[in-house]
Amino acid sequence: MARPPSLQGRERPFRVRAQDAEDLAVVSAYLQDAVLPVAEIAYSPAEERFVLVAARFRWEKAVRGKVAAEGGEPDERVHCGVRFEAVTAVRARGVDPKKDRGRMLNLLQIAWADGHVDLICADEVTIRLDVRRLACHVEDLGEPWPTVFRPTHED
User: Fold this and answer.
1) Among candidates 104, 140, 131, which has minimal Cα distance to 13?
2) Residue 154 belongs to a domain
3) Phi, psi for residue 112 in degrees, rounded to 5
4) Bridge-partner residues for 16, per DSSP?
């Protein structure tokens, strides 16, 4: 997927729909290292809908520019809404969505396999969505803000 096109000097918000494993891999890459407050996660069994709002690190901007220390622009985060449809059940390992409302999760990957989507987070936390089909919608919300914290990963 190409980077978001420029719109009069600023970039369009990231907005995409994932309907298969390849689409979801792109979404996962864009959402890697998103900060996810447990309080911003909701599941509606009646509507078969799971939603979350996270602070997404803008990797698409970071990988093509110099870091601020080298005279480039600062890295950025932006609020991002994620919606999964056709969700029949939600299970969590390593976090209790009702008791841990103040906890912040670090989203590492979104994986698809045989009727479920796994939101894999740091500290051995996984949120599993059982789904009838893959139907995911992702959209940046609001304006990005600068951050001095660039995510790093050990090899």
Assistant:
1) 140
2) no
3) -115, 135
4) 138
Cβ pair 36, 28 in contact under 8 A: no
pLDDT for res 1: 38
Q: Structural domain tally of the chain?
A: 1
Q: What is the mean pLDDT of the chain?
A: 88
- pTM to 2 decimal places: 0.85
128 in any annotated domain: yes
Provide the pLDDT for residue 6: 44
Q: Which pLDDT score, from 0 to 100, does residue 155 have?
A: 56
- Cα 61 to the center of its chain, rounded Å: 16
Distance set, CA 128 to CA 43, 62, 117, 119 (Å): 12, 29, 6, 6
Q: Kindly list the distances between the CA atom of residue 52 and the CA atoms of 30, 64, 69, in Å, as whole numbers in the listed order.
A: 15, 28, 33
Q: Write down how long the chain is.
A: 155
Query: Positive or negative, the Cα torsion across 75, 78, 83, 89?
Result: positive
- pLDDT level of residue 68 (50, 70, 90 thresholds): low
Cβ 139 vs Cβ 14: under 8 Å: yes
155 occurs within a structural domain: no
Residue 126 sits in which domain range? 14-143
- Inside any domain, residue 153: no
